User: Fold these one by one.
Assistant:
Number 1:
Amino acid sequence: LEATGASAAADEVWSEALVAGDVGSFVRVYTDGSSHRLRLLHRAVGHPVAGSHAARVLDAMQVTPGSHPPAALTLRQRQVLQLVGKGLSDRDVSAAMGVSISTTKTHLRSIYERLRVCSRTAAVARAIELRLL
C-alpha cells in the first residue's frame, strides 16, 4: 500500500499489525530496512495505540524516531562489499563478479550512500556493525 501511494491505508494496516504484535515485553523487528517500512514505523510512533510499540521496535533497531537508518543493501551490494572486505581491488571485484569496473564502482557509490560512509574501509566496518556482513 505504501509503495502504491496509499499511505493512509498503509498506516492503518501497519498500526493494526503493531497493535497485534504488542504482546508482553517482546519486540519483534518488523522491518528489513526498506524505506517504505521505515516510513510506516516512524509515522506509527504518533499513533495513539500503536505508537509506543512502534517506538520500541525502532529502539530495538537502534533507530530513534525521526532519524533515518542506513538502508538495507541489495544482494549484489553485499557481494561487492564482501569481496572488498577481503581486500580485493575494484578490478578484482569486477572480475570475480563478472561485471565491468564501472558497475563495481556504481555499486560502491550506492553502498557508501546507503551506509552513510565515504570509504571502503568505513563501509566494511559499518556493514559488520549493522550485521549486514
Note: The first helix runs from residue 7 to 21.
Number 2:
Amino acid sequence: MIELNLLNRQIDTLMAEQRAAWRELASPSLTTFDRREIRNRLKQAETELRDHLKIRTERLRPQPSLTEPAGDSLADIPFRIF
C-alpha cells in the first residue's frame, strides 16, 4: 500500500509540474527556444504521467483468483450400472 501512496504522490507532482509549465508557456516574454524547451518538458511529463497512471490502474484492478472453481464433484465419477 505504501507503493501506491508513493505512486499517487508522484502522479500529483507530475500534474502540478504540467500545470506550472502551461502557465509558464502562456508568458509573452518567452523566446522561441524557451517555448520549445517547455513544450519538450510537457511531452516528457505527459509520457511519465501516462506510465504512472497505467501502473496505478493495473495495481488497483482486482486480481483474478488463483483457485479453480469448484465443479460438480459427482460429474467426474464414472458410474456403471450392473
Note: The mean pLDDT is 86.
